[in-house]
Amino acid sequence: MLEETVAHPVSAAAGADSAAGHVQRRTWVCLCAAFLIWCVLAATIATSAVNYRRNATDSPAALLSIERGTIFYEGAAGAPQVRARPSQAVEEGGVVEVGDNGRATLELYDGTILRMLANTRVAVDALRVGKFNAEHTRLAITMPTGAAHVTVSGGLPYGRDVTIATPHGDISLNKGEYLVWVQEDGTRVSSYSGQAKVAIGENAVRIRDNQRAMLPPDGFPRGPFALLDNMIRNGDFAGQFQGWSILDKGEPGRPDMGGTRTLVPETIAGRKVQALQISRDSEKDTHNETGIVQEINRDVSAYRTVSLTAWVKVNNASLSGGGYLGSEYPLMFRVQYTDEKGGRPGWSRGFYYANPENRPTENGEQLARGEWFPFLIRLSDLPDRPSYIRSIEVLSAGHDFDAVVADVRLIAE
């Protein structure tokens, strides 16, 4: 009986120690688990903070300004196309479309400006500024149709380029001024100033100040070429009359001798050239037009300037000034074109050396007789600016005449 009384307290004490140890172990397990969870949370927060700092970006909207015509805007995520408002904000993923005869300006956050011409469509693919990491700053545009004069500010970090994707290839533009023009026969890229890369896949050419390149529909990029594009073929007559057609027009109902076209050697400012001499000795003093014509058929709407240049000399003319109606000059240029509004005003300029009878000379220019004169006209400065040039004519008109012309050029820039 005594032994049983002593055994019970020993057994109770052992159970208490076991329970206390179990509680202690549970406590440590909980503390370790809590610490582990805290470490995971802390690591997650730290990693998130690092990733945020590394990858966080803003997307500042571009500003759309309407110069004229109807401009359409389509927001990101397939928003419906609507008519753009003045000072329209354009977000990343937005699309701007310029209607017929329209013009608009898109200013990006870094100061880069796209001056978009008629029938141009531009999608803003990336308007990204890295909040903490400049590596994520990007400006990327897609231009499937149309033309834009692009002034790149050079404000992106690390000298990064503004990129433009076209149906024919990709373009990277550094600080400078450019023309990007998407046409059916390829994309033209002109650098007025600045360096650009023009690429089809891994094949690329680089251009810089006063150069241009071409992205054809298939094949390799072509260039660099000189910026100035002479649209007249064989304007120096080195290939005789190749590229030119004959122009002869007499007075209806009064048959008479026509004029003649002769290629002659001449010296201009110490330089030997091949020149075209047009002359006529009328028997009946009838009206006649003698010359040559060349089909141009070129869209010039996006070029900054279009100029006609030539050397001209007038030796003889039987009519004063521009003749009876101001349209009979011993030497003339005529350009047939369509203007930006779809009209066909055409343009002409004549040259004469004397006007004793005070005949009309509204479209004429007086020269010293028998002396070479360098002629230049900026057709792009005309009130009815050419949009599409169809043809150019070089001719003499009137009764008797003798004139010479050399080095005819139609220069697009």
Task: Report what the structure shows.
The chain has 413 residues and is mainly β. The protein folds into 2 domains: 58-226, Jelly Rolls (Sandwich); 245-412, Jelly Rolls, CATH 2.60.120. The chain is built from 1 helix and 30 strands. It has one helix spanning 2-55; strands at 57-58, 62-68, 71-74, 81-83, 88-90, 95-98, 103-107, 113-116, 121-130, 138-152, 162-166, 169-173, 176-183, 186-193, 196-200, 203-207, 211-215, 222-226, 229-230, 245-250, 260-268, 271-280, 288-299, 306-317, 331-339, 347-352, 364-366, 373-378, 386-398, 401-412. The strands form 3 sheets. The protein has an 18-stranded mixed beta sheet that branches. Strands 19, 21, 22, 24, 28 and 30 form a 6-stranded antiparallel beta sheet that branches. Strands 20-23-29-25-26-27 form a 6-stranded mixed beta sheet, with no helix packed on it. β25 (331-339) and β26 form a beta hairpin. Mean pLDDT is 88; it is low at 1-7.
Structure characteristics:
Jelly Rolls, mainly beta, 18-stranded mixed sheet, 2 domains, 49% strand, 13% helix, 413 residues
